């Protein structure tokens, strides 16, 4: 369990993390979101004991990170931003070095190296020096070293940055496969990632906490949540849609011939809309419910805060 | 201790993973040859000893040791691997020591490779080998002090060139601490006690007897304490200023 209370960090006059408090329980997969420069990486650096907070406290498994840094670092697997590694080593040498520093017994170390290289698909490059690897491979080497000691807490700073869609999928699968009683914190600015792997989202902007809840709650904040979009085959009269019970607004994009129908808050309108479509025989190619557009919600949450500052 | 050894192995291997170690060793050998034979008059002196070889060591180390020390921390900062290293459950002091001993071992290796000279004097004459062995130990100790200064400078910056220049300047001042160049700077305003203290820090005067094969406790202690002090300074700098 991680408990962060009134965490603050400044670099000179610039306050990067401002009075941040939250708790993370085992089983939580937290998506740590925020615009660039919001303080995500700085918070992660403090969680891993790399930076010391200016004020506030971080407790991990009941221990204060200030006094029990080494004990806590043993429990944490950390992928720093940009996945730094020692470029002159081969992947195998590097992973072995990490197991030695972490004092994993030899036999188990071999087992773990084989296991993690299988997990993140590194087998083909085990004897290649890290400098010559592609960005995707480097990122996976970083992931491999983070999970090599089977940590209780995994902190990943932009784990899928620079990966192609297949690799992203692989990494997300890996995170999901991690044991259920672990804590995973992932920083990202890719919103789809949060709905794909996380069961909790924390949004910060200007170092302040802006949102803490499930990805579903985040989606609910969107005007598009529970909205229904239909695609028309050709232009036709859609004014009838507004008459449906529970519909508050419609938006018609004439170029794509898509019409989005917005419900009153808390209402679902899919069945009514489809009934209406059949009733008046609208020429509809497609009809689908909207999940809620996270991009809009994200912008709304993080930009209003910018307004406050200005 | 095992962590120091792990860091040592990694650092030592990394010198050889790139051409750094090979070039360094080559230049070390060429330069020490140039100093010994051309400036030291190894043959002309007609003496079966290595004084002309050891006498130049402070000057050799002055620019060669900063070259091997400059990457120690600067590179970690530049590539961001410092973040990885400092979030592993290891003590900063263990890393400082591991890095120091790795580079010091390279310097030891360089000295060993000059063994050809030792064989030559034995072939040409009948030198006192005890003296030569003592001078080798003294030289290695002194190189450690230069190295500790250089690594400390490397800890302050992410730029290797800056680290090199800082290390060379600091080493230069320490080499010359007892000479007229430095003392005249202080003479006009500092008291004699200060002046004596500064002179006592001189690498050159503490090596004078060592080059002749005399290992006095005072000189040995001076270099050992210098190494400890500069390593501790690196430790403080790294702990205080992990991120940029």
Automatic annotation (TrEMBL), chain A:
Residues forming the ABC transporter domain are 2-231
Domain of life of the organism encoding this protein = Bacteria
Q: Which GO terms describe its molecular function?
A: ATP binding
Residue runs in coiled coils: none
What InterPro entries does the record point to? AAA+_ATPase (IPR003593), ABC_transporter-like_ATP-bd (IPR003439), P-loop_NTPase (IPR027417)
Taken from the record, one Pfam family name reads ABC_tran
Keyword tags: ATP-binding, Nucleotide-binding, Transport
Supply the Gene3D superfamilies for this chain: P-loop containing nucleotide triphosphate hydrolases
The family this protein is said to belong to = Belongs to the ABC transporter superfamily.
This protein is called: ABC transporter ATP-binding protein
Lineage, opening ranks: Bacteria, Pseudomonadati, Pseudomonadota, Gammaproteobacteria, Alteromonadales
UniProtKB/TrEMBL annotation, chain B:
Give the InterPro entries listed for this entry. ABC-2_transporter_component, PABS
The stretch of residues making up the signal peptide is none
Cell compartment(s), UniProt: Cell membrane
Recite the UniProt keywords alphabetically.
Answer: Cell membrane, Membrane, Polyamine biosynthesis, Transferase, Transmembrane, Transmembrane helix
- Which PROSITE patterns does the entry link to? PABS_2
Q: Which residues form the PABS domain?
A: 1-42
So where does this one cross the membrane? 12-38, 58-74, 95-119, 131-149, 161-186, 220-238
- Output the Pfam families linked to this UniProt entry: ABC2_membrane_2
Q: How does the record classify its membrane topology?
A: Multi-pass membrane protein
Q: What is this protein called?
A: ABC transporter permease subunit
Lineage, please? Bacteria, Pseudomonadati, Pseudomonadota, Gammaproteobacteria, Alteromonadales
